Amino acid sequence: MTTSPAPPTLHDVIAAFEGVYDPSWAASWDAVGLVCGDPVQPVRRVMFAVDPVAEVVEEAVEWGADLLVTHHPLFLRGVTSVAATTPKGRLVHRLIGAGTALYTAHTNADTAAPGVSDALAAAIGLTGELRPLDPDPADPLGRRGIGRIGTLDTPESLRSFADRVAGGLPATAAGVRVAGDLDRPVRVVAVSGGAGDSLLGAARAAGVDVFLTADLRHHPASEFAEHGDTALVDAAHWATEWPWLAEGAARLAHALGGERANVEMRVSGLVTDAWARAVGTPDTPTSRHKESEDK
Asked: Which annotated residues bind a divalent metal cation (predicted)?
């Protein structure tokens, strides 16, 4: 008679995960690691999600997850209370009451190789060897860093590339925004999952044809677009980071020993983008970015 192996403990799972996404790679301002949970508790089910919000927590609890891994931290600043009188306090109480641990992997997953931006690059079909847009100086091999640069198999118009992005990422209310001549050819592409304002200079310095990221603010994007040498594609923050979840789950499963570990993985499909609907969006480009009329 054969018996199933004992499930790994939360301590075991975290050790395996941190062997892939080292917390020391996180930015100094970040808050990654175990938020709540007993290290000795057994883990049979792990769910991955971008945001530790109420809907995601309920999905994890209803599925029976022993561990919820999110990309975004629940707490980025110090707190003096997790009383259930606050939204975040209620989430902590709900998780602990259900026996569901919470762990966050944020900028350490961003800078990992492969990491968040590698998954984004794969989602939109970039090929060839990817290199960091903003390399991590602490990595002697030069593989880790924020953002990635890759290429398309063949050049295509910015219009087609924007369609490619929209088709490769999960749909959100805001969709995909484009700055640049829609007929210009693009092949060399920079991507960065999440907010990418700080990488605009790096994208221009790298000489890429287009930079795909999220959360671009009006003034930096407008000033960047004035140069006309690099196009911009702005997608929803959540959508640019969601592709990493499946990769993170797969790498954790492998680190635990695959099927032998008998740990079930799940990726949340809940759209937790902050915006629920876009109203009054024009069907045609604005005058500044209008399509050529002499076709």
From this structure: 71-72, 110, 237, 241
Quote the pTM value: 0.93
- Three-class SS state of 56: helix
**Residue whose entry in the numeric block shows the structure tokens 């994890």:** 60
Q: What does DSSP assign to residue 199?
A: G
Q: For the chain, what percentages of helix, strand and coil (3-state, to nearest 5) are there?
A: 35, 25, 40
For the chain, the straight-line distance linking the first and the last C-alpha, in angstroms and rounded, comes to: 74
Structure-token pair, residue 61 = 């609890």
Rg (CA), the chain: 21
Query: Residues within the annotated binding site for a divalent metal cation?
Result: 71-72, 110, 237, 241
Average pLDDT along the chain, 295 residues, taken 10 residues at a time = 79 98 97 98 98 98 98 92 95 98 98 98 94 96 97 97 98 94 97 97 97 96 90 98 98 92 95 91 62 44
Residue 100: the pLDDT is 98
Chain-centroid distance of CA 227 in Å reads 28
Binding residues are: 71-72, 110, 237, 241
Helices (H) and strands (E) in the chain, counts: 10, 11
Domains of the chain: 10-108+242-266 (3.40.1390.30), 112-235 (3.40.1390.30)
Residue 295 pLDDT: 39
